Amino acid sequence: MIRIENVTKRYSETIAVDDLSLEVDDGKVCVLIGPSGCGKTTTLRMINRLIEPTSGHIYIDGKETRQMKPEKLRRYIGYAIQSVGLFPHMTVAANIAVVPKLLHWKRQRISDRVEELLTLVGLDPTEYARKYPNQLSGGEAQRIGVARALAADPPVLLMDEPFGAVDPLTRERLQAQFARIQQDLKKTVILVTHDLDEAIRLADQIAIMNSGKLVQYDTPEIILSKPASKFVHDFVGTDRALKRLSRINIEGYIKPASSINVRTPIQEAVSSLGKLLYLWVVDDHEYLLGWLDRRSINKSTSVERSMVSTDLSDMAVRSGSTLREALSRMLGLGFKFVPVVDESGRLIGELSLKDIEAATSEFEK
Amino acid sequence: MAARRDSVAITGSVLGLASLLFAWLTLKPNRLLSGTGLELWNSAGWDDTVIILVLWSVCLGLSFAGNKRLHAFVLGVLANVILIYTFVLAGHTAGNLLQTAPQFARISLGAGFWLTIAAAYILIHASRRRLQDVRIWQGFITWSALIAFVVMLLAGCFDDLAIMQEYNARSDRFEQEFFQHIRLFVQPVAIGTIIGVLLGIWAARSRIAEHPIFFTTNIVQTIPGLALLGLLLPILSALADDYPILEDWGIRGVGPAPAIIALTIYSLLPIVRNTFVALRQVDPAVINAGVGMGMSRFQVFYSIEVPLSAPLVLEGIRIAAIVAVGLAILAALIGGGGLGFFVMEGFNQGASDLILVGAIPIVVLAFVVDAAMRLAGRLATPKGIAAGES
Amino acid sequence: MEKWIRLLGVMVIVMSLFIVSACDDDDDTSGQESKGPIVVGSKIDTEGALLASMIILVLEENGFDVTDKAQTGTTAIVRAALESGEIDMYPEYTGNGAFFFDEADSDVWKDAQAGYDRVAELDMENYNIVWLEPAPANNTWAVAIPQELAEAENLASLEDFATYANGGGHVKLIGSEEFVTSPAALPSFQEAYGFTLSSDQLLTISGGNTALTEKAAAEGTDGVNAAMAYGTDGQVAALGLVILSDPKGAQPVYEPAPRVRGEIIAEYPEIAGIINPVFESLGLETLQALNAKIAVEGQIAMDVAEEYLISAGFLAE
């Protein structure tokens, strides 16, 4: 557990961090966010003593950070930065092994750990362990940066814009991966970012800073629904509602979907359709193939020929997605319903626009 | 396959043909006079001249012909053949000419000979380029003539040429001065490396130190070698007078000491500058990450900065070494010995071949030192950096 | 592991250079060493090397431990080395006393004995430096002309040369800066024999390298047909030149003699007895012939010195 108590950092005339106090519980992700120069990075750096506070105390698990030698302290805190800073002259494996080596782990333990971590961040150890940083793509490098930060299994993880230097698509994937890892490992994480979407996606608690002061420290839901000041209100932006949708998993909103097998004779299909607006078409293993409606159905041919299967990949929403994604697809294609599929493509249900509207209005209460 | 011209090979072949027009050997009545130049046909005879002519012509033809690897290899082999033939012919012809010449006559190598060597190596260079993927062939055409040359040299095939006669008359002294020359450049570069690297680190770390350090080394670099020696002599003499212990250490006004001190000073700039740049160009993010992960300042220096800056620092040392090999020639002027001794003696006596006895080994030494330091640089380049080009 | 191999490779390369550089040459010492060590130096010229070699050999023969520092450096360096005790002796020329002690105008230098006495006296007074016996060979400045010219115009002495020059004969003389301007050199000839060379007729080079000047005259480079020369130059005949005689004795006398630190003589007075006979045996023709062996035949000074000393009986076989 990390406790920051009345910490101030002053540089001759400027006050970078002004009497900041906040607490992060074990296993929680706290995101520091704010406009440029608000002191978020300075705060982060004071935790692992890359910067020394002018006044105040910082405690990790009850022990004051000032009591340990800085080098020693840092070996127990994972540190990942935006530019990653992989050592170019060392292999990926050697990079990850840096802190364990500093802690004098045995060689076998280190190599096992390297393998474990590479798998954790989704990279094949046999292929990547011996590669050099300049043979890696941006996304791969950032993942290895995170693996390196986690190498010695530190209780605390500090991250400074760790996903900043890549393209949006890669960033999204990295964030998803991080969320999954965090679910498994439950580290105490302090993450600095300027990207509110990222904060909303990853944080258990968000600390909004402005000009060195802590402005609001709450869960994302509360920050989105009850901004504490005009500043937060403006900072969060006018699309708060949409942002909140990205916090909600579709899990609770999936409704059963009506479907028929593709080999069903066409007459039967017509009668099954009945008064329904549409029917999903699946194969023997429940894989989604398309949909049928009154307009597309043609009595003279088969279900297979009549069904519509265009735009299917854009329509289908994976389980584990957020309501925001589902809404985005609906809006993009002009449908009020989207099918929900699992990782392999099997139909498990559907979502409707009405349900999303209902979810949104719930927040307002 | 369309025939492709190799312009470098063509240049070499044309130069080789042209070299036949120049005096190949020079017959001097004694080692002092300039003598008369003899073309190939006037010294070795028409038979050999025609053979060489034909060889060069074939080379020229091949240069126009194909771009297959085989063509390049044959070209390289021909060049080596011409070289070895020329060497053998030179030694042999010299012997013949001396039979009928006055008692103290000397045979020197003329412009034609040197041009032949140059032209042959241009051809070898052109062939090497096209043989990058067959290292064995490439090695063969690079080293054959050189190895043959060394064998012939040791066997005494060249003993009738003036340059070897000068050498043989003073071979003991040559050995002595050769090792002295090595001392004259190894010691300054070694000391210069220690001081230079330390200064470079200091300049890279401290903004205040950067300017004075470079200011001083730049200024000193512009002082010409002889002038610096001239400045050092009285200073060192005076110091040695006042502090006799310096004399015991060998630091005096004459002898190798002033030369070594001067050469150390000249070694500083390349080493300081390269160390400085090498340290500064280490990605700050990498250092940041290292410190943030819990490396101590020393560990950051040792595991990150040193390996990443090593190649560039070694490059600086290489440059300093090459400069020192050449400048060490000046040591002879102040009694410091070295190969410059023969250059001076040859100059004073007006015997040009004696000058070559000093000068040619210096050139060879420079090449060897360059190759050795490049190898060291490659060895010191961490795999991660070199692998980047994949 | 790989890293260590590379590091080893670098160290091997570096170490090998160091090892080679540490290879010590066994210069100085000969078999038995009882007395000394005595450091013998010389200027960077043929005759200096020859004389120094003789001194070294004959001292070693007589039980001294001698350090060979022949061809120490230029005149200034050698002088400084002697005065500071860097070297213990070197061969110098009696006539140079004029410049050391700034008595260039005095006529004492034109007489061999008087000049020798004078410089020995002055050196003793000022620096505690002793002059041993000189060789009877006048290595003074001279003018050398190609044999063809001498025969064609019947020139044997500087008098003839003066007549030739004044009569409009083509003259281009090459000499050092010092030769052309020093009152003891060319001006002295011109005054004594009554001729003057204009700047068109002169080619001045820096440094007194007679090998260069004589070669230029021999080969007619740049129209040169007369060269600055030294009396004992060995290469004159081989280059096809003749030296014009100086019947009026316009030049100071430069006889070579060892210039020795007083302390050394005081400690080993027998040195004089060992070296003097050698120098006294070196007449003009002898020195010319020995110099010729070095300059023309390309033998090294030490070998020529050894051969001569053996033949003259100063050295055992």
Output the keywords:
heterotrimer; A: 365 residues; alpha/beta; four-stranded antiparallel beta sheet; 16 strands; globular; C: 317 residues; D-Maltodextrin-Binding Protein, domain 2; 2 domains; five-stranded mixed beta sheet; three-stranded antiparallel beta sheet; 17% strand
Average pLDDT rating of chain A: 87
| Count of beta strands of chain B | 3
Q: Outline the low-pLDDT stretches of chain B.
A: none
Main beta sheet of chain B: strand number and arrangement?
Answer: 3 strands, antiparallel
What would you give as the CATH superfamily of the largest domain in chain B? Answer: MetI-like
Radius of gyration of chain A: 25 Å
Greatest interface and its residue counts? Answer: B-C, 51 and 47 residues
- The residue fraction in helices of chain A comes out at 25-40%
Task: Tell me the number of structural domains of chain B.
Answer: 2
Query: What portion of the residues of chain A fall into strands of 2 or more residues?
Result: 15-25%
Give a verbal description of the structure:
The complex is a heterotrimer of chains A (365), B (390) and C (317). Chain A has 17 helices and 16 strands. Chain A has helices spanning 40-47, 70-75, 92-96, 98-102, 107-120, 125-128, 138-150, 168-185, 196-202, 220-225, 230-236, 240-245, 266-273, 303-306, 312-315, 323-333, 353-364; strands at 2-11, 14-24, 29-33, 55-60, 63-64, 77-81, 156-160, 188-193, 205-210, 213-218, 259-261, 278-282, 288-293, 317-318, 337-341, 347-352. In chain A, a hairpin with a 2-residue loop joins strand 9 and strand 10 (213-218). Chain A starts with a strand and ends with a helix. By secondary structure, chain B is mainly alpha-helical. Chain B folds into two domains: 2-162, no CATH class; 171-389, Orthogonal Bundle (MetI-like fold), CATH 1.10.3720. The longest helix of chain B is centred in the middle third of the chain and has 35 residues, at 171-205. The mean pLDDT of chain B is 88. Chain C is α/β, with parallel strands linked by helices. Chain C folds into two domains: 34-138 and 253-311, D-Maltodextrin-Binding Protein, domain 2; 141-243, D-Maltodextrin-Binding Protein, domain 2 (3-Layer(aba) Sandwich), CATH 3.40.190. Residues 25-31 of chain C have low confidence and may be disordered. Chains in contact: A-B, B-C. The interface between B and C is large, with 51 and 47 residues.
